[in-house]
Amino acid sequence: MKEDQIDKSIKLDTNVTIEKRVDGRVVPVENSQNLTDDQLNSILLQMNISEERINDMLRSQKEFLVSQGGTSVDVETSNVKRYFQSSDGTKHLVTDFNKEKIEDLRQTEMKKLNLESDKSINVTPFAMGSDGSGSFNGRGSLTYMGKSPNAAEFTYAYEDKWSFNQNVTQKFTDK
Predict the structure, then answer these.
(1) CA atoms in the 13 A half-sphere facing the CB of 38
(2) Element spanning 91, H or E
(3) How far apart are the first and last CA of the chain?
């Protein structure tokens, strides 16, 4: 296939040269664990990954992406719906307009559960907004790898990272 042909070789420094395919994909780099941070970052830039995203990655993520090769694909998540299910089984859609009302309902449910179980359970308020506005944030990367051997399907690699802005206490309550 034409898009799989090597189009150019790019010398990043005296020790590292990468190859790019006609469609812009970086050819997978062997032994990515032996590369320096600067070398990994340079290769990721060639894969069209932003500096902001690169600076946010763990070294292991950088090594994985470089070892896979490919080119970054822009991804936008939209129309994400959040729900809260009350103890009576009612499923409530959470929006910017009713989030305070739903939060009050959640806290009321916890108070009721505390009385019934004779325990003290707290529920952290949930946040609406960007991926980093709550107690955790997440980020994902999608990389175009090429086509399947029969050229009938596109192949992608996905990786993600989740981090927590505050301590998370995990509790289970069975009723």
Answers:
(1) 5
(2) strand 91-94
(3) 59
63 contact partners, CB below 8 Å, separation of at least 6: 32, 33, 35, 40
Q: Read off the tokens for 41.
A: 């970052």
Phi then psi for residue 59, to 5 deg, are -55, -40
Residue 137 CB contacts under 8 Å (≥ 6 apart), including other chains: 130, 131, 162, 163, 165
Per-residue exposure over 103-129, b if at least 16 CB sit within 10 Å of its own CB, e if not: bebbeebeeeeeeeeeeeeeeeeeeee
Residue position matching structure tokens 């590292």: 16
Q: Note the pTM of the prediction, 2 decimals.
A: 0.59
* CA torsion angle 93 96 102 104 (round to 10): 180
pLDDT tens, residue order, the chain (175 aa): 677 788 889 999 988 999 999 888 999 999 999 999 999 999 999 999 989 889 988 898 899 999 999 998 877 767 778 888 888 888 988 888 998 898 888 888 888 877 877 777 666 555 433 444 556 667 677 788 888 777 777 888 777 777 766 665 555 555 5
Question: Taking a C-beta distance cutoff of 8 angstroms, is the pair 110, 122 a contact?
Answer: yes
Element (H, E) at 87: none
| SS3 state at 64 | helix
